[in-house]
């Protein structure tokens, strides 16, 4: 599923969450953050707000965009686990975020884990010393 949202001076945050009752694993992957029409030449800082292993809220800046020097940033499918909030911490935008949402049902997840195990069983070639 594709995901897209826009952060602006009037809409400074967007929260992506899934149904608590859903027992599937959800992965949200952020691929591109970019300034769109109407953006001023100012620093636009986008933060990802989530929870750490102690369930405390944590905000991490993922992009600092400026029209004149870096209007777009590729995040190479930066993977996040919902719920997650994207926040415009500085600037007025508009900043567009694009990515995808993948749902893995429990039986799919166990199948993938089996694949990972078989790869580990393969023998790696010995490391050869460098020639001088």
Task: Report what the structure shows.
- This protein has one helix and eight strands, in the order E-E-E-E-E-E-E-E-H.
- The chain is mainly β and 132 residues long.
- The protein has one domain: Jelly Rolls (Sandwich), CATH 2.60.120.340.
- The chain has a four-stranded antiparallel beta sheet with strand order 1-8-3-6. The chain has a four-stranded antiparallel beta sheet with strand order 2-7-4-5, with no helix packed on it.
- Strand 4 (44-51) and strand 5 (57-65) form a beta hairpin.
- The longest helix has 16 residues, at 106-121.
- Belongs to the nucleoplasmin family.
- Interacts with NPM (via N-terminus). Forms a pentamer with NPM at a ratio 4:1 (NPM3/NPM). Two pentamers form a decamer.
- It is found in: Nucleus, Nucleolus.
List the helices and strands and how they pair.
Blueprint: E1 2-7, E2 13-16, E3 25-35, E4 44-51, E5 57-65, E6 72-80, E7 84-90, E8 95-104, H1 106-121
Antiparallel strand pairs: 1-8, 2-7, 3-6, 3-8, 4-5, 4-7
Keywords: Acetylation, Chaperone, Methylation, Nucleus, Phosphoprotein
Biased composition (Acidic residues): 110-124
Region (Disordered): 110-132
In short:
The protein is mainly beta. The protein contains one helix and eight strands; from the N terminus they run E-E-E-E-E-E-E-E-H.
C-alpha geometry? globular
In terms of DSSP E residues, the strand content is over 45%
H/E series: EEEEEEEEH
Q: Low-confidence spans: pLDDT under 50, at least 5 residues?
A: 108-120
The second-level CATH architecture is Sandwich
The CATH topology annotation reads as Jelly Rolls
Distance separating the two termini: 52 Å
Overall average pLDDT: 83
Tell me the number of strands. 8
The secondary structure category is mainly beta
- Which bin fits the share of residues in helices? 10-25%
Major sheet characteristics? 4 strands, antiparallel
Number of helices: 1
CATH class: Mainly Beta
The strand line-up of the biggest sheet is 1-8-3-6
CATH superfamily: Nucleoplasmin core domain
User: How many distinct folded domains?
Assistant: 1
Radius of gyration: 19 Å
């Amino acid at each position: 599923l594709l995901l897209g949202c826009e952060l602006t001076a009037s809409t400074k945050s967007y929260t992506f969450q899934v149904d608590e009752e859903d027992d599937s694993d959800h992965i949200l992957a952020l691929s591109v953050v970019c300034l769109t029409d109407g953006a001023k030449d100012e620093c636009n800082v986008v933060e990802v707000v989530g929870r750490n292993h102690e369930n405390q809220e944590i905000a991490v800046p993922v992009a600092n965009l400026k029209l004149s020097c870096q209007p777009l940033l590729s995040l190479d499918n930066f993977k996040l686990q919902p719920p997650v909030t994207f926040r415009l911490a500085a600037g007025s935008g508009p900043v567009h975020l694009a990515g995808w949402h993948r749902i893995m049902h429990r039986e799919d997840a166990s199948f993938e884990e089996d694949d990972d195990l078989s790869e580990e069983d393969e023998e790696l070639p010995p490391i050869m010393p460098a020639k001088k």
